[in-house]
């Protein structure tokens, strides 16, 4: 896989399970915050599933579209595009009513520089959106960052474990969850809180960062010794299918890979691909941010793309100097300061 077109083809090809589920989702689907890292491929996966199933359903992508290319690309795939700043009340209220919402909006980077904007984006806007779409089903993207660091030997946090957000970003994400929960309770809106841990694309993500450090012979910080990851295509598919699992009272779902992966092992696998010995720095911590995805696997089955496949695709992408998105995950951050 060497081009964005090939990557799109791989990531946006629906599985039989998605084809089966898409026709059960009643009505159009609106994706809010569609202009970021995940939105474009999520929308294209959904529209491909609709086309292949021969059903009639609109995908409506809403974002400010700071990157105009995303808007025209989505339109060329038959996706309806609405440019809107959701923090502007008039623009939010002008959006059409739809039965299904996938909510991707969030602010991570610069959270510590302008905390008021982060709180507005992550915890105030959810209230405005939940009021506007109180009659819709809503899949609310959240993050495993709402959990505390836990021992790496404990199998990761379950959905019923206590939250313990570290730092402002994680606190505002817990705010996002609770504001949606408040309005779900108020209006009996069917929702699902989608706690995602590290989506993997060839253009960004934890594995790309590890692979690039090895390839460029740069020291890799291993303080955050263990991680969970999931192929972005798998996460997108689960998000669309989760519209069928929105409920009142709302449910919570950890969405990530099954394995708790040691960063050192991942670096060594990249090292084998490149024929380069990784350089490590820092001391491996015994506590990390880890989620347990057993519930997700029980509902949706095994993820399609294995860690080995992701590493091999990314190693090839790095060595071919494939296009990347400059949005580092900061997965080594231990104080939640993004
Ligand atoms: N990717 C991951 O590995 C990961 C892991 C854990 C959790 N998550 C969560 O999953 C969600 C989606 O992930 P992502 O990586 O796609 O996030 P992302 O790259 O930050 O995309 C979200 C997009 O929302 C749009 N947006 C922001 N403010 C807006 C506003 N006022 N009005 C309209 N649109 C606005 C932005 O695009 P425009 O500039 O076009 O408006 C932004 O790029 C996020 O909430 C994130 O917290 C992601």
Secondary structure elements and pairings:
Layout: H1 4-11, H2 16-22, E1 29-32, H3 39-53, E2 59-63, H4 68-76, E3 80-83, H5 89-93, E4 100-103, H6 115-132, E5 137-143, E6 150-151, H7 167-187, E7 191-196, E8 199-200, H8 206-215, E9 219-221, E10 226-227, E11 230-231, H9 232-241, E12 251-255, E13 261-262, H10 263-274, E14 279-281, E15 287-288, H11 294-300, H12 307-319
Parallel strand pairs: 1-2, 1-4, 2-3, 4-5, 5-7, 7-12, 8-11, 9-14
Antiparallel strand pairs: 6-15, 10-13
Helix pairs in contact: 2-3, 3-9, 6-7, 8-10, 8-12, 10-12
The structure holds NADP nicotinamide-adenine-dinucleotide phosphate.
What's this entry about, in short?
By secondary structure, the chain is an alpha/beta fold.
Order of helices and strands: HHEHEHEHEHEEHEEHEEEHEEHEEHH
Give the radius of gyration. Answer: 19 Å
**Helical content band:** 25-40%
Nearest-integer average pLDDT? 96
Identify the strand order in the major beta sheet.
3-2-1-4-5-7-12
Beta fraction: 15-25%
Per the CATH scheme, the topology name is: Rossmann fold
Number of domains: 1
Number of strands: 15
First CA to last CA: what distance? 32 Å
List unreliable stretches of 5+ residues.
Answer: none
- Look at the helices and sheets and give the structural class: alpha/beta
Q: Which ligands accompany this protein?
A: NADP nicotinamide-adenine-dinucleotide phosphate
Description:
This protein is an alpha/beta fold and 338 residues long. The protein has one domain (4-319): NAD(P)-binding Rossmann-like Domain (Rossmann fold). Helix content is 40%, strand content 16%. The protein has twelve helices and 15 strands. The strands form five sheets. It has a seven-stranded parallel β-sheet with strand order 3-2-1-4-5-7-12, sandwiched between helices. Strands 6-15 form a two-stranded antiparallel ribbon. A two-stranded parallel ribbon has the order 8-11. α6 (115-132) links the parallel β4 (100-103) and β5 (137-143). α3 (39-53) crosses α9 (232-241), α6 packs parallel to α7 (167-187) and α8 (206-215) crosses α10 (263-274). It is globular. The protein starts with a helix and ends in a 19-residue tail after the last helix. The relative contact order is 0.15. The model has no long low-confidence stretch (mean pLDDT 96). NADP nicotinamide-adenine-dinucleotide phosphate binds at residues 33, 35-39, 63-66, 85-87, 104-106, 108, 121, 141, 143, 196, 198-199. Residues 33, 35-39, 63-66, 85-87, 104-106, 108, 121, 141, 143, 196, 198-199 line the site of NADP nicotinamide-adenine-dinucleotide phosphate.
């Amino acid at each position: 896989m060497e081009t964005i077109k090939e990557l799109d083809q791989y990531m946006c090809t629906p599985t039989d399970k998605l084809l089966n589920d898409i026709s059960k989702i009643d009505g159009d689907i609106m994706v809010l915050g569609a202009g970021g890292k995940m939105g474009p491929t999520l929308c294209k996966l959904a529209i491909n599933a609709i086309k292949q199933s021969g059903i009639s359903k609109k995908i409506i992508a809403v974002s400010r579209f700071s990157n105009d290319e995303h808007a025209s690309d989505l339109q060329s795939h038959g996706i309806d595009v609405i440019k809107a700043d959701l923090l502007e009340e008039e623009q939010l209220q002008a959006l059409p009513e739809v039965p299904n919402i996938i909510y991707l909006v969030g602010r991570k980077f610069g959270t510590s520089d302008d905390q008021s904007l982060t709180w507005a984006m992550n915890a105030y806007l959810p209230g405005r959106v939940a009021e506007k779409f109180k009659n819709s089903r809503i899949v609310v993207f959240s993050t495993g960052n709402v959990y505390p660091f836990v021992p790496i030997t404990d199998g990761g946090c379950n959905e019923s474990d206590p939250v313990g957000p570290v730092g402002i970003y994680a606190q505002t994400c817990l705010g996002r969850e609770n504001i949606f929960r408040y309005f779900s309770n108020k209006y009996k809106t069917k929702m699902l809180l989608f706690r995602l841990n590290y989506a993997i694309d060839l253009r960004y993500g934890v594995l790309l960062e590890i692979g690039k450090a090895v390839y460029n012979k740069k020291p890799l910080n291993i303080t955050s010794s263990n991680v969970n990851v999931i192929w972005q295509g798998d996460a997108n598919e689960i998000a669309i299918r989760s519209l069928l699992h929105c409920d009142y009272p709302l449910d919570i779902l950890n969405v990530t890979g099954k394995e708790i992966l040691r960063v050192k092992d991942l670096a060594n696998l990249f090292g084998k691909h490149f024929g380069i010995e990784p350089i490590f720095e820092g001391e491996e911590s015994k506590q990390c941010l880890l989620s347990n995805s057993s519930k997700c696997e029980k509902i949706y089955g095994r993820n399609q793309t294995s860690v080995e496949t992701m590493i091999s695709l990314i190693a090839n992408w790095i060595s071919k100097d494939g296009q990347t998105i400059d949005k580092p995950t900061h997965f080594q951050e231990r104080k939640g300061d993004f």
